[in-house]
Structure formats: C-alpha cells, structure tokens
Design a protein that fits this description.
Number of domains: 2
Number of strands: 17
Radius of gyration: 23 Å
Distance between the termini: 40 Å
Length: 307
C-alpha cells in the first residue's frame, strides 16, 4: 500500500477562516503508512476516546488532520482509515453529495465523530441538547467557546457523535432528486463555464438547459414548497421550490405556471409547462439546484438524468 499523508493541526472554530494561512512547517507531517505512524495512532486514540463520551460529556476539544487522498481512495475508505462515519467526513468538508468527492482535493478529518449543523441562533444550545442529547457545556468546550454568548459568532456548530438524518443521508447519496422532465428532451447546455449565446463571451452557466418542445410537462425534482412563481428578466416565467436542508430548485423559461406560492408539491405534480419566455435562443427548460443559496451541478444529484 502506498503511503498515506495527514497533517494534524490544533483547531479553533472561531479561526476557521484563518488557520490555513499558518506555515505548514509548524505542523507534523506524515508520509508513511498511517498504521505505522505514532501521531496517526495518537489521533485515532482521540477519536476512540470521544466515542465513549456521550454519557460523561467529557469530549476532547475539536481538532483536525489534513488528508490527501490517493488515486483509488473514496469517502468510504477514508472514513474507514480514521474510524469515522462517512456522515462526519462529508459534513466537515461540506460535501452535500457523494459525487463531489475528488482525489485531487485535500480533506479535513476531525478527532471526533459528529457533524456540523447550521446555527440558527434561536436557542440553539437548547435545541442541540433536546435533539442530540449533548449538554450545552460539552458543545461549548468541543467548539472552543468560553461561554454561551460566543456561540452567536458561529455560522455552524460541531455536534459530537451526531449523524445525518434519514433525509440528509438520502440527499447525500443523490437518490432523491429526479429529472424534472422525466427523461424527455435533449441536454443543450451544461453546468459551468460556456460561451454565452448572446454576448459571445465566456460566462458561468449556473444550471442545465434541456431543449424540449413548448408545452412539455414539468415536475418537481423533489417534493417541497413553492416559494416563488412569476417573471424574472433572464429566467422568464420561473418557479422556485424549497425542499429543506438548504436545497432549492429553479425551473425557468416556462410557458405556463400551474401552481401557486405556498403550494406543497410531490413528485407526481405537474408544476408548469415548458416554454420560450425570458432570455432564450429557443424552447427549453433551464433547471438549477441550489444548496445554501449556491448553484451546484444538477448532473451530480439527479437520479434520472439521461438526456
């Protein structure tokens, strides 16, 4: 087996955005098989110790290792190397889909099983205790916080020993989103940088375009609640559906909208008909998936995307 490499660092959530600027020479580096490395063993012992702290609440402060995958690594192998769940590796590295794993990237590995959750700043410590059974004092200590007032500074909070919900796991596995046209049409423009058909300049395309005849049925890619229906300059007639867990889907250039704001829709609901409204070069559906307001590649998340 080729050598694995990790770089262990002490870590404070409050300085997440600045720790990467530190000189790498300040940290121990490993270039031998992990099992033979003393500092790797020490890191694994911390992970093992934290597994047994649910009752006592005496978790160790959160710290991380860097890990650079090898050619044949995947999330499941990495999780196994560090005796952690895939949920933990995915959450810490903000991987909302298993298909976003890339061996060219470097990944953070925590010294504790757990996940990050969004800080809604509305009695968040009380909610964590109720939902996960972890005391407020433990949450503060693990996240390097001195008192409850400091928690307001955090966008996300690490909850030790927590896992994805059933719905989050299904989303991560990429098996919940469906093709909004159910296999009809032809992919005419992919997600990413492209030459804009109007300006003829290189621009970023935040969704996929599927060429299809006007009047084709459009379905929700996932059950959810309608949060917008109407006309937007570039999108033309547009529907936006909120699905929870940070996900929204956009359906643009529609000829007719068949639902209203606040409607709850399921997979089998026809929400609109395709069209040619807004800024287009021909009849098609513009489809986007957004995660925490950022556009992501639908091709990584759709279950039935065979255009």
């Amino acid at each position: 087996m080729k050598a694995k490499s990790i770089l262990i660092i002490s870590f404070s959530i409050l300085v997440l955005s600045t720790f990467i600027s530190l000189n790498n020479d300040d940290f121990p580096f490993f270039s031998k098989p992990l099992i033979e490395d003393f500092l790797y063993k020490e890191f694994i012992s911390e992970i093992s110790y934290n597994y047994g702290c649910h009752s006592s609440g005496k978790f160790l402060p959160l710290r991380f290792a860097y890990y650079k995958p090898e050619k044949y690594d995947d999330l499941y192998r990495i999780a196994n190397y560090f005796q952690l769940s895939v949920d933990t590796i995915a959450s810490v590295n903000n991987l909302f889909s298993q298909y976003l794993f890339d061996t060219e990237d470097t990944y953070l590995i925590p010294n504790c099983e757990g996940i990050f959750i969004d800080n809604d700043k509305d009695n968040i410590l009380e909610k964590i205790t109720k939902n996960y059974g972890i005391s407020s004092s433990s949450i503060l200590f693990v996240n390097h916080l001195k008192n409850e007032s400091e928690i307001k500074k955090l966008e996300k909070i690490f909850v030790p020993l927590a896992h994805f919900s059933k719905e989050e796991k299904i989303l991560f596995l990429g098996s919940l989103f469906r093709d909004p046209l159910r296999g009809k049409g032809v992919l005419s423009s992919s997600f990413g940088v492209r030459i804009d058909p109007f300006s003829h300049k290189s621009t970023f395309h935040g969704g996929v375009d599927i060429a299809v005849p006007i009047g084709t049925n459009v379905y929700p890619a996932m059950p959810g609640k309608v949060i917008f229906t109407g006309f937007k300059k570039d999108y033309g007639n547009l529907v936006i559906i909120e699905h929870g867990y940070g996900y929204e889907t956009y359906y643009g250039h529609l000829s007719k909208i068949l639902i209203q704001i606040q409607d709850k829709v399921d997979f089998d609901k026809i929400i609109a008909l395709t069209g040619n409204t807004g800024k287009t070069t021909g009849p098609h559906l513009h489809f986007e998936i957004r995660f925490n307001k950022k556009r992501v590649n639908p091709s990584n998340l759709l279950l039935f995307f065979n255009h």
